[in-house]
Protein 1
Amino acid sequence: MPRHFTAADNELIRTQLLASGLAHFTQYGLRGMRVEDVCKDVGVAKGTFYKFFEHKEALFLAIADQRDQMHKAEIIAFFSQCDGPVADRAGRFFDQLVEKLMSDPLVAIIAVPDDFAALLRKTPPARLAHEEEKDLRFIETFCAGLKSEGLIGDVDPHDIAAILTLLVSLVLQKSLFSAGQFAASCTILREIFVQKLTASAP
């Protein structure tokens, strides 16, 4: 007879699947990670795994969403704790974002072309559109917060989103650049980001 899981059991299992999935994705990459190994870690059958996630790519996306929320909260907290001119704070915000992108193991995974292609094959277009919209809403909220504090004037969130999209693309393609080229490209994007964000500062 199949085991009945309570709501608390389900929450615990999902949390454990996310944690084990992160460890296995980090060690083996997207294509090398095996669902059965994660299930063994958590102590559940593969059938139970598929009650939570349609496939391992869905688990990857759930972990990515969790980490995205964590990073955004940390970056906002970091910015709010900074002092000094808004341009300096914007620059440090950008630097913090670069650090997050460079150090997150999931970013390193999707920087592998075959892993990224495998993820895209299993990601519905609607999900991709949702992620883009979610990021834009975050930027809108961020800019609105700065404006309400009197730090900036009107800023087009689409401009900021475009700059940050270029940054993510640059990080994902880092292996194609020399160290000097990559650093110079980041510096240029940083300057554009600060200029666009603070051009209307009082």
Note: The two ends are 68 Å apart (CA to CA).
Protein 2
Amino acid sequence: MHYQNNISFFAFLAVVLMMIVFPSHAQKQPLIIEEQGSFMVGGEIVKASGTFDPINHGYFNPSNQASEGQTLHGDHAYVFYQIPQDKRKLPLIFWHGYGQSAKTWETTPDGREGFQNIFLRKQFPVYLIDQPRRGKAGRSTEPTTITAKPDDQLWFGIFRLGIDNEFFKGSQFPQDSLALNHFYRQITPDTGPLDIEVNINAVTALFDKIGAGILVTHSHSGGQGWLTALQNDNIKGIVSYEPGSNFVFPENEIPDPISYVGGKLSARGVPMSDFKKLTQIPIIIYYGDYIPTEPVKYPGQEQWRAALAMAKTWSNAVNKHGGDVTLIYLPDIGIKGNSHFPMSDLNNEKIAELMFNWLQEKGLD
């Protein structure tokens, strides 16, 4: 009897410990998904001249394959979607940054729920994009060369996790070696030349297909997001995490380029009639921590100093013409330690809550 009591005690203790170690998992309710699926959207079809020979086309001899008369479907986007029960009126369309795919928005490198699940739990339909020539949309109509060279520490710096292999003090990015290993493995190459117009056309086609929605961008897709909004009225709001390039200004109001260690950030000019489209929708921009206000010697930080400075100039320009842009540097509101990937950081639920509150404030929920 005493032995059985000990077993019961240890079993109870194990349950308590599991609840302490995994409190978020223990408290979450099951997700009820009404519909989910995936599709390709946009893209081009290339046809080679000549006549296809179904017998002597080189199937069994790849080095001698002939293209004559054949077609190539490529340059589309891949989209995975989930629609929860009791869905909200507007979906969230998540677009990744450079060197990334839809994985950006899925499970975090250390296994916590990412923005995909966080916002499904808030009843938003969620669409995750792999842009053309990337990830599951890897079929390109143009060739490229993919190299395989060690560059993890380059990304570590550019993504403001830290310098070399040392995390910044107070970093919110998960720092265990397993999480970092997973993070490095989500970096993915382009399978064709990076072409902004190709990407914009595919995402425009997505909004044509699904209708009104809210575009959520990260890094490199930030500037592409502004340009997509110029083409598609179905974008009803934009949430942009750390946009880094392609800030759009009226043609006669283009600011001077901003120099930084390793490069120069220039703006793009568009006709005023196009620019005014950005004043018709609410936009919010978030930047994380460790962005210097003065030049430093590390290029990984420097490019974000330039981006934040350009974002301030851009926000003022849009608002001057009647727009509704909010720019938030997270440390200014007491949220410190965020990397270039706030959607993956340890406080990603707090970051998501900021976004959710803004969506409610602007009537986009």
Note: The first helix runs from residue 2 to 21.
Protein 3
Amino acid sequence: MAGTELIDRARAGDGEAFRALTEPHRRELQVHCYRMLGSFQDAEDALQDTLLDAWRGLGGFDGRASIRTWLYRIATNRCLSALRTAARRPAKAWDIPGVEPPEPTRLGEVVWLEPYPDTLLEGAFAVPLGPEARYEQSEAISLAFVTALQLLPPRQVAVLVLRDVLGFPASDVAAMLDTTVDSVKSALKRARAGLRHREPGNPPAGAAIVADFVRAWEDADIAALVALLTDDVFMSMPPLPLEYEGRDVVAGFCARLFGAGRRFDLVPTRANGQPAFGAYLRAPSGARHGTGLYVLTLARDGIRAMTRFENSVLPAFGLPRSLPEVSRRRT
């Protein structure tokens, strides 16, 4: 068989054969690591470690499971090790000059959260899910779902993702985690009970809502922006821990930004299956510097959540750190 031949060649040190074995699974493994870790950079590091472990350990592959299952075992345990040993990105203090933030509704716990570029999702979901999967792929990559996973104990995260997202049988998950089927079932029950997240929207009028948001944000039109927000709209800004919930509270936050004279141009992209925008601050000189990335969660009646990330994430989305200067400031 071609697969057996590739394995034999890879065991003999053929790098091209190893890449042929692992490349079809690379994207889905990266998404798996991202779900578990919540950080795009941490997921890329875990993926590289997974491939290195697989290269070094291919001699121990006994063929009883598929290459894909074997790789998921390595990736899952790499992520669990990272969660046990790595210091997560710490919270940052407010650092926007000239703007005093309002009192937050609460302080967020998942300050290490990073967005995942939709361009890297292509091919990640090509393999059919197992029959016991409970989540749509688009839901299982949403910011709300990934954030909720970060609040569970690590082994519960692993079990829930492997069972409910990917649909692996309990026996396979038990083998991946070196535990028993009963332990997997128990962990899954606790994970399901502890998982709390908002369902991502998929409204028919989503394109119109997004277009109206761009106009309102670029024009600093608070009234138009407020009209787009749901009553329970939620705003977060990792790695800042400040979180705001409710239309009036979020509107007040945005009013402070615009009231300080900050004006933006938005460049569209997509993150976590959701509309997103690189935000570029206009300067009186005509310069436009990237200040961050906004990701929107939509509902049928408007914008349910806004998540703002730092400008350090822009390169992962193919966005520049600054836009070409304009001859005069837009009005």
Note: The longest helix spans residues 67-85.
